[in-house]
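To the structural biology subgroup,

Please find below the input and predicted structure for DoxX, which we are adding to the shared reference set this quarter. The sequence is reproduced verbatim from the submission form. If anyone notices a discrepancy with their own records, reply to this email rather than editing the shared folder directly, so we keep one authoritative version.
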Amino acid sequence: MAFHEKITLSSQDKMDAVALLVLRLGLAWFIFLWAAHKIITPGQYQDLARNFDGVEVSLSQVYLAGGAQIALCLLVALGVLRYFSYGSLLIMHFFTVTRRWEGFFDPFAVNERGFPVNRNQVIDLAVLAALIALVLLIRRDHFSVGGWLARHDRARWWM
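Predicted structure (tokenized):
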């Protein structure tokens, strides 16, 4: 296809693209909030690494991880390097889910004050499913930088 040729999207393609835009922005925002908290409250993440993983991490390591995650979220929000950025968020979140699997077996557990203690794990599964769907539907994600470049047959590596 030549650079001057324009691909027109059907109304169904546009609806799919809008749905994926909403999904992509929502997922990027969700993960961004967790990443930003690494920058805002790094000590909390040092405690989590110590208590959940049994490892000590420095403040600079927490800041580095948070910064890398924020950068990934920006790539996802824009739809740049889609296979890399969407896939990276999926793998990162999958790792989180595998570390918290025990809560999936007791989703209705409450603490002594009646607070549901495992609901974040249940939310994690929904987010994981949404990230899988986003990766599977990359080729229908037309309202992204990568989608625009693909429609205009430019710079395939940006897709």
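Summary notes: The first helix runs from residue 11 to 40. The chain is about 65% helix and 0% strand.

Regards,
Lab coordination
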